[in-house]
Automatic annotation (TrEMBL):
GO terms for biological process: diaminopimelate biosynthetic process. The keyword Hydrolase applies. The keyword Hydrolase applies. Residues 517-526 have a biased composition (Low complexity). One of its GO terms (molecular function) is N-acetyldiaminopimelate deacetylase activity. Residues 212-309 form the Peptidase M20 dimerisation domain. InterPro entries: Amidohydrolase, Bact_exopeptidase_dim_dom, Peptidase_M20, Peptidase_M20_dimer. Pfam families: M20_dimer, Peptidase_M20. Residues 533-556 have a biased composition (Pro residues). This is Peptidase M20 dimerisation domain-containing protein. Residues 488-564 are annotated as: Disordered. It comes from the Bacteria. Keywords: Hydrolase.
Length: 564
């Protein structure tokens, strides 16, 4: 990976926080549109590589914000480029696809959509992985930066990616000439909602997400009557033996110091109790944190499946097909520390934590870093907490590690991010990430050239959180998770009342400062036919609520007990 110094326009964290504050003054005006856009996407999810409606909405938003926009990149992908003078090229990525899950959140904007998957099956569709929030924050960040071009220099590349759930969308866009057509970025940035308390930002240097591989397996036998099993070769028994034997790979073949997962998520065979079928079918998922273990899993799985079938005298070897795979997501350590410091300088230490261990989920975002290239592109990927604070508080357990397992996470039918703190934190985190590299003009005191760059190297130390003496106690804020949905869904022509009712003292001992920044300039957002939520814009401090439903660690306690 490139060293931090390879992007000379990066500035120190406190300066980023200050410039970010200038840009974030726009958030009050743009937030109702972003929130409405999110609700609209959540109600209208689309499966992988079918994101046509979503892509059109993204393209229209970017076009109105002044970006050069191209669609149908790698299928339904959208790319927007905004050139704003000399400087680095920063890629911001959001994914658009949803999952074949039936939503069970009881939200007033819950999805009832259905579609046809790649196998031709009619399935329910839900944004159960937060890609609606990713996309809403992506276009919102693009709009914020487009409306405040005096605060930065360089090129902003917005990438709305299809097919993340199938782990082939990023590669598809690259194969369609993403970098050849739009330029090679100096840095790639992405984020994902997570199970942490809403508004928390979570970083990890190095490996943050695991690799994965999915296999489809057909096992062949010789069917017959269930009363005459001795005349058959039962593929159900072969499949059952394979399922149990696969677990011994992790237990007895993988070094205990390594992480590995093998899950058989699908097992199908037969249609009647007294009929032994001719075939059985399995789908197997694996996870690993390095390529060596991933390759060991692949070889062992093939050996076990083939060996068990041959031991049972199957008429032919099983068919084993790798359907999709993704490598580890490995954050550049230097750039991760840089962005973490910028986020801490803006949000405050209480809202930015370091993840001690990788998640075993898999992303294809790392493909944008060209990991197989002799000169790879550095990238940073982080999490934005999305769990409502009341849900976090009610979750079983006394530590963050306990509670994370007790809240609805991604790929759950009950996954329901807390809208306002999640979207506000996502907007701020992604905007600050971009401004960390898009060089800002200096003041006249710094240089005679008003467009000079500031090639300050990143400090390896964490920046201190800004003071909280400008918190406005007269303008408290509450989450809009339970706000008037008639207003948010555009069904009420009258302006709704503010949902602000809780004072910051309900959530903080020492609250972070409010966000600050300039006034919106250009006309942006969706078309006139898109109806944003009515009612006033909401005040824009950093996410409200204690990060772990408690104040920061008390003196004498172990800070590690408060890390997610």
């Amino acid at each position: 990976m490139k060293a931090v110094a390879a992007v000379p326009q990066a500035v120190d964290p406190q300066r980023v926080a200050e410039h970010g504050g200038e840009v974030m003054r726009l958030v009050d005006e743009i937030f109702p549109l972003v929130e409405g856009f999110y609700v609209d996407l959540h109600r209208n999810p689309e499966l992988s590589h079918q994101e046509n409606r979503t892509a059109r909405a993204v393209a229209e938003w970017l076009s109105r914000a002044g970006f050069e926009v191209e669609t149908n990149i790698g299928g339904t992908g959208v790319v927007g480029v905004l050139r704003n003078g000399d400087g680095p090229t920063v890629l911001l990525r959001g994914d658009m696809d949803a999952l074949p899950i039936e939503e069970q959140t009881d939200l007033p904007y819950a999805s009832t959509a259905r579609g046809v998957d790649a196998d031709g099956q009619d399935v329910p569709i839900m944004h159960a992985c937060g890609h609606d929030a990713h996309t809403a924050c992506l276009v919102g960040t693009a709009d914020l930066l487009a409306s405040s071009r005096d605060n930065w220099r360089g090129t902003l590349m917005i990438v709305a990616q299809p097919g993340e759930e199938t782990l082939d969308g990023a590669e598809g866009m690259l194969q369609d000439g993403l970098y050849e057509r739009f330029g090679r970025p100096d840095i790639a940035l992405g984020q994902h909602v997570g199970p942490q308390p809403a508004g928390m930002i979570v970083h990890r240097a190095g490996v943050i997400l695991a690799s994965s591989a999915t296999y489809r397996v057909r096992i062949f036998g010789q069917g017959g009557h269930g009363s005459q099993p001795h005349t058959t070769i039962d593929p159900v028994v072969i499949a059952a033996t394979i399922v149990t034997r696969l677990q011994a790979i992790v237990a007895r073949e993988i070094n205990p110091s390594e992480m590995a997962v093998i899950t058989v998520g699908v097992l199908r065979a037969g249609s009647k109790a007294n009929v032994i079928p001719d075939e059985a079918y399995l789908e197997i998922d694996t996870r690993a944190l390095n390529n060596k273990v991933a390759e060991q899993l692949r070889a062992s799985i093939e050996r076990v499946i083939t060996g068990e079938a041959r031991a049972a005298n199957a008429p032919r070897d099983p068919e084993i097909t790798l359907t999709h795979s993704g490598g580890v997501t490995r954050n550049d350590p230097g750039h991760t520390r840089a962005l973490s410091a910028a986020h801490r300088a803006y949000f405050g230490d209480a809202y930015v934590v370091d993840m001690p261990e990788p998640f075993t989920a898999t992303e294809d975002f790392g493909r944008f870093g060209l990991p197989d290239d002799p000169n790879p592109i550095p990238y940073v990927f982080w999490f934005v907490g999305a769990t409502p604070h009341e849900v976090w508080a009610a979750a079983p357990g006394t530590t963050p590690f306990d509670k994370i397992t007790g809240v609805p996470g991604s790929h759950s039918a009950r996954f329901a991010p807390d809208r306002e703190p999640t979207l506000r934190a996502g907007l701020a985190a992604l905007t600050l990430g971009a401004l960390s590299y898009l060089a800002a003009p200096t003041t006249e005191d710094d240089s005679d050239d008003p467009h000079a760059f500031v090639p300050t190297a990143w400090s390896e130390t964490e920046a201190a959180a800004p003071a909280a003496d400008d918190w406005d106690d007269e303008n408290p804020v509450e989450s809009t998770q339970n706000a008037d949905m008639d207003a948010l869904l555009g069904d009420d022509e009258d302006e709704g009342e503010s949902t602000q009712s809780a004072g910051p003292e309900d959530f903080f001992d020492d609250p972070p400062p409010p966000m600050r920044g300039p006034t919106q300039g250009t006309q942006t957002g969706p078309s006139d036919s898109f109806r944003p939520p009515s009612g006033p814009a909401y005040y824009a401090p950093p996410p409200s609520g204690s990060p772990i439903q408690a104040p920061p660690p008390l003196p004498g306690t172990d800070p590690d007990d408060y890390r997610i």
